[in-house]
Amino acid sequence: MIGRLRGVLVEVEADHCVIDCAGVGYVVACGARTLQRLPAPGDEAILAVETNWSQENGPRLYGFLTRDDRRAFTTLTGIQGVGPKAALSVLDVLPPGELAAAVAREDKAAVARANGVGPKLALRIVTELKGKPLGDPSFTPAAPGVHAEAAPASASITGEAVSALLGLGMAEVNARRAVDQALLRLGDEAELSAVIRAALQELGR
Questions:
Q1: DSSP strand E in 55-192: where?
Q2: Exposed, middle or buried: residue 37 (CB in 10 Å: 0-12, 13-18, 19+)?
Q3: Please, which pLDDT band fits residue 145 given cuts at 50, 70 and 90?
Q4: 145 in helix, strand or coil?
Q5: What confidence tens digit (pLDDT) does each residue in 21-43 have?
Q6: What is the end-to-end Cα distance of the chain in Å, rounded?
Q7: Strand, coil or helix: what is 51?
Q8: Neighbours of 48 (CB within 10 A)
C-alpha cells in the first residue's frame, strides 16, 4: 500500500494529477482544493496518499497535501453511502477543522453544500461523525449531549511554524502549504526549528 509520494509534478487535470517518482508516473485522484494548492508542473510535490480498491476500478490512489485531510477522508469513506468522490467533495467545501465544527453544530446544510451530497447523506455524515476524530486530535466533534469545552493547549507545531513564517512576511496560504509539505517530509516528531527550516526551503524552490 502506498502512503506517500514524493516526486516531480508532471501534470494537473480537473480531478487528478500525475507525479513522476523515479521514472514511474503515478496518477493520483485529488479534490479541487488540493489541486489548486499544488506547485507548478515541473516542481517537486509531496502528497499523503490513501490507496482505495474497488471491483469496478481496481486500485486507485487519492492524494492530499496534509495528513489531516487524508485521515478525514478515510473516516468519511468508512460511512455507508460515502464513496471516495463524495468524501473529496465534502473536504473541498469543509476542511477537517471546519467539518468537525459543522458536525458539532449539527449543521447538515454546510455538509450538503458538497457536490453530490444530498440532505439525507449529509444527515448521515453529521450523525456518524459525532465523536470520531477527523485528523488532528483537536478535530473531534462532541458526541450528542456532550458539551466540549476548549481546553487551553499550547499551539501545535504547525501553528507555531506558520506563525513564524507569517512574521517573516510570507502570505498565509503559502506559509501553510510550505509547513504541510515540510511535515510530510520530516514526520510528526520533527522539532519546530527543523520544520521552519524545511518550510523555508519549500518556499525557496
A1: 58-64
A2: middle
A3: very low
A4: coil
A5: 999 999 999 999 999 989 999 99
A6: 29
A7: strand
A8: 22
Phi and psi at 180, nearest 5°, equal -60, -45
How does the average pLDDT of the chain come out, rounded?
84
- pTM of structure: 0.69
Q: Among 110, 129, 148, which residue terminates a domain?
A: 129
164 forms beta bridges with none
Contacts of 150 (CB under 8 A, 6+ apart): none
Cα 94–chain centre separation: 10
Whether residue 64 contacts residue 180, with contact meaning beta carbons closer than 8 Å, is answered with no
CA 130 → CA 35, 83, 137, 147, 157, distances in Å? 29, 19, 14, 12, 26
The number of domains in the chain is 3
Q: Say if residue 81 is in the same domain as residue 50.
A: no
Which range of residues forms the domain containing residue 24? 4-64
Q: Is the pLDDT of residue 152 over 50?
A: no
Q: Which amino acid is at 177?
A: R
Q: Whole-angstrom Cα distance, residue 135 to residue 75?
A: 9
Q: How far apart are CA 173 and CA 54, in angstroms?
A: 35
- CB 134, CB 68: distance < 8 Å: yes
